[in-house]
Amino acid sequence: MNAFSAPASILITGASSGIGAALALEFAGPGIRLALTGRDQARLSAVAGACSNAGAEPRVATLDVRERAPLAAWIAEVDHAAPLDLAIANAGVSAGTGGAGADAGETEAQTRRVIATNLDGVLNTVLPAVAEMRPRGRGQVAIMSSLAAFRGFPGAPAYCASKAAVRVWGEALRGELHGAGIGVSVICPGYVRSPMTAINDFPMPLLMDAERAARIIRRGLARNRPRIAFPWPLYAAVWLLSALPPRLTDPLLRRLPKKT
Question: Domains plus CATH for the chain?
Answer without folding.
Answer: 9-253 (3.40.50.720)
